[in-house]
Amino acid sequence: MGSRFPDVGFPIRVSQTQKQHISPADDLHRYWRSQAEEGYLERYWPDDLGHDAWINTIRRLLLEPFPEFADAEIKYFANGTFNRLYSITHAGWNKSYLFRVSIPVEPFFKTESEIATMEYVRRHTSMPVPRVIAFSSSDDNELGYEWILMEMMPGEPLRKVWNTMPEPARVEFFAELAGHVKQLAALRFSAFGNIYFADVADQVLSIPLPQRAQPDAGVDDGADKDIGPGGAFVLGRIVSQDFFFDKRVYYPGSRGPFQTTRELVDARVALLGKRISDLSPTEGQAWYCENDRELARHRDRVYELFDQLKALVPQLVPPDNGPEDVGMLWHDDLSEHNLLVDPATFKLTAVVDWESVSVVPAYETHDAVPAFLSDRDWRPTPLTLLARGVPPNDEAIAADKRRRAAELGPARRAYFGALGPLYDDAAPETRLRVRAKQGLAKQLEIASFQHRPWWTAAWLAENGVDGCLRQGEEDADAAAEPECARA
């Protein structure tokens, strides 16, 4: 096996492309439920099929296009946030494969953009990414879900080997990763969105290709490489949790591609506004979650905070792009789960999980710091836990940041030393804009305002808007809003 799939051409699209991609709301809500621990909506599999049933269906589905899989061994491999994975092996093959099934949180677009992005990265960088053999971006098949067949990459997740890696190996590993990220950063883009194959351009572009504006003359040479008229790829509709998480996928509004950061931010703000006004606070109804119940309980305060946040946008995000707004293809989950390592040599063997990887303004990458090296996974206590009387975790966050600074310091220095700057921020006004835009972007993340509005209130107060002004008038809510009260 292996020679059956020569390393030429694009992955095989088994499904037929189609115009209508969004399932009815009464179907898609089945894949979301209130997370018991923290009370917000999470993705889950509603069926109770055993793995044997899945494996038999996968085998039948693959037999027609790939008869070689008739006597392959198919086993359950792992679960992801949106996915179930099954390994496919055979004693006579020189390669192993993964079959990944996905729940429909952003039908068609998430699968199409993920496959095209991996192929784009494979063609234009040396970053080791999985090679996709075939895929279906439609659920019109025996499984009833979209799927991907790809080569299995060697190595173990970084989380499994980190504690056994000596410090020099850690430093060398992240210096090597920085070299690959530097190649990604060199692939500059003149708009923001997601990468797709050119043959679906009419389904992912809001404006047909011939009518789209060409890149600005001021953009670096090499921008939009292989993108646009005559290219194999297009930059189209954005696929990001800010745009599809829970009910957001149904809301009208632009999904890009966006020509300016202001357009992108305005679209995110509009979706946040729709989401906090479209709550499901009653247990038992579709889309119910405990977080919506708490948002509804504080509805007036939440709307007030949102209006203050929205009013800041024109002050913090100018209508024209600056040097920090150059488009960059950024994998925002370079975590201990998605970086694979050779356990003997401690070399990088693969970067996996490319779903929802978008072209974004360079400042949003926070200097392209990998998730594993950052402190950005830490979140203040969410609204639902504060309502239950759980104390804020501010001290735990500060203590863990100190611990990680000591543990990761050498690796961080090696990474940034090898990567270098992403854009020119020598001008003081550029640095001020970056700080303001990064702060605003943080508030617009799914896990920020929608789950932790009192944290946003503190941020607003720090930026000149007194979001806590009415705190003292609401004694009954004082215990539920300690983050705001401490701002």
TrEMBL record:
Signal sequence extent: none
Pfam families: APH
Top-level division of the source organism's lineage: Eukaryota
Transmembrane segments annotated in the record for this chain: none
Annotated Aminoglycoside phosphotransferase domain residues: 74-197, 286-362
Chain segments annotated as coiled-coil in the UniProt record: none
Name the UniProt record assigns to this protein: Aminoglycoside phosphotransferase domain-containing protein
